[in-house]
Amino acid sequence: MTMESAHAPQPAAQATAAQGTALLIHPPRRSAGRRTAPLARRSIHQHGSVAGLLTVDGFALASALLLVPELPWPTAAFILLVGVQLSLHTYRGLYRPRLSPSALAELPTLLGLLGIQWFATAEALRTYDARYDIGWQTLAVLVAAQTLLGCAGRAVVYRTWRWSAVRHPQSALVVGREPLARHISSALYERAEYGLRPVGRVDPAHNQPAESASAGTAPLPVLTTPEDVTRAVRQNAVRHAVFTHPPESSPETAALVGLLAEHGCRLWLVDGAVAGTVASPRTTDPDHLWGFAVRPLSGGAHRPVARAGKRVMDASLAAVAVLAAAPVMGVCALAVRVLDGPGVIFRQERIGLHGRPFVLLKFRTVRPATEHESDVRWSVALDQRMSGIGRLLRRTSLDELPQLWNVLRGDMSLVGPRPERPYFVAKFRTMHPGYQARHRMPVGITGLAQVNGLRGDTSIEDRARFDNHYIETWSLWQDVCILARTAASLFRLGGS
After folding, report:
1. 354 and 414: one domain?
2. Most-buried pick from 38, 285, 435, 470 (CB within 10 A)?
């Protein structure tokens, strides 16, 4: 939602959650005669921490190893086992947050992953030294024991999560229109085990004076402007937002993604308007909210371990690339200085993660008539102001090399949606639903849209669709694939 296009708040909406805490919006839950503890800021924490799951998986692995003490396990074998297990479980999504986790449902997945883990380890040990050969019967015992122990441990962890969720619920906003938003709000309020307590509904198009109420509950305030949402998030310590429709369905809801993510909210999307809808094929872990298929909305935005890995990979590869490309960058800088005059580096404000501005660096390829012109003029490959050296730098993408410094500084990532100027961001987000949602992830030098040919004067709507698809399906391996495709495209002399 943009500041320019937001509707004026209704009188009823102004007396919202912004004027009180979550306790003023709903009476305390009652569950089996127990009263839920009041929601206070100090009690806010992320239900479903992965620490418990990591501990359980480590305990299951150690216990399985004790079943075969006669094997002369080398230290490298333990490191290999732990590394393979973490990689497989993370890739399969066994550490992702879910609203309705089930250890029994995960049993087949655990069995398959542990079978791969032990088989790969056994083959590696057999190749290294025949003394470490593990028989098939021993492998079957190890896989079965670790699977059962891991499944039992996860059941205990999930029960603990539900116990904590009932006693320490977290404030949540429901984003969407009637009647689905009302059903979701009622389900969250009545089912305490989800740990989400609705404190307001966000609907920029709302034009009714009052929100309908469920039996035994107070009406939910309706928030219609970014100011309403920001105030409610801060005063009610909101940690979750449930979208009943894809954010790309309108520019207003698309803008909410960046706003809520900037405040640290975990975002969820209801995949269907009918209870029991099958989960989206883009997720490998079907989840539900009282029969409604639901999945995390932000892709990598709330995967701190994976995001830390992305940052480490960015910094490492960018540092190596800067050293390797230093001679090439020196030649480019000298060519621009000699052939086009002073002003080798072109600096321009761009919009990055969560809509924050930063200064992007490039080799200068054109000289605008004024500084303002460079901020509002759309550049194309056949710009008449482009010199011969500038055209060569564009075609080979060498003009992008200074952005490696932006990556080292943390302004950008190697892979992500391409950053745009503030003028065009404000323009595109009102014209193309889903454009604002691109800012959920760090912007990048290259991206999924770029390796699919969407560079320069191409469809903005197509770019936004590819960028949002990248965010929803993000993984470190996908970044590696995009980098490989980008490197291959350099030999085809593309460029924008």
Report:
1. yes
2. 435
- Residue range(s) defining the domain that contains residue 89: 50-164
pLDDT per position as a tens digit, 47-85: 456 889 999 999 999 898 888 776 666 666 778 788 889
Cα–Cα distance for residue pair 150/113, rounded to 1 Å? 12
Q: Is the peptide bond before 204 cis (omega within 30 degrees of 0)?
A: no
Q: What is the pLDDT of residues 223-281, one digit of tens each?
A: 988 888 989 999 999 999 999 988 767 767 777 887 887 787 888 988 754 433 334 44
434 and 479 share a domain? yes
Q: How many angstroms separate the CA atoms of 364 and 401, rounded?
A: 11
Note whether 313 and 212 are same-domain residues.
Answer: no
Question: Which DSSP letter does residue 456 get?
Answer: S
Is 481 in the same domain as 338? yes
Count of residues in the chain: 496
Instruction: Kindly report the CATH number assigned to the domain that includes residue 207.
Output: 3.40.50.720
144 and 247 belong to one structural domain = no
Does 15 fall in a domain? no
The DSSP result for 133-152, as a single string, is: ---HHHHHHHHHHHHHHHHH
Distance CA 63, CA 82 (A): 13
Q: Would residue 65 count as lying in a domain? A: yes
**How far, in whole angstroms, is CA 123 from its chain's centroid?**
35
Cα distance from N-terminal residue to C-terminal residue, the chain: 30
Q: How far is 369 from 275, CA to CA, in rounded Å?
A: 58
Distance CA 114, CA 80 (A): 13
Pairing of strands 357-363, 345-351: antiparallel
- Clarify whether residues 439 and 424 are in a common domain: yes
Q: 18-27, 201-210, 338-347, 484-493: which has the minimum mean pLDDT? A: 18-27
Residues 134, 179, single domain; the answer is no
Sorted by sequence, the CB contacts under 8 Å of residue 55 that are 6+ apart come out as none
User: Same structural domain for residues 287 and 349?
Assistant: no
Say which residue the tokens 């230093």 belong to: 326
Contact 414, 318 (CB under 8 A): yes
| Closest alpha carbon to 429 in 298, 219, 253, 305 | 253
What CA–CA distances, in Å, run from 214 to 32, 57, 190, 277, 375? Answer: 20, 42, 10, 23, 50
Number of compact structural domains in the chain: 3
83 — alpha (psi -120 to 50), left (phi > 0) or beta?
alpha
Percent composition of the chain: helix, strand, coil (DSSP 3-state, to 5): 55, 10, 35
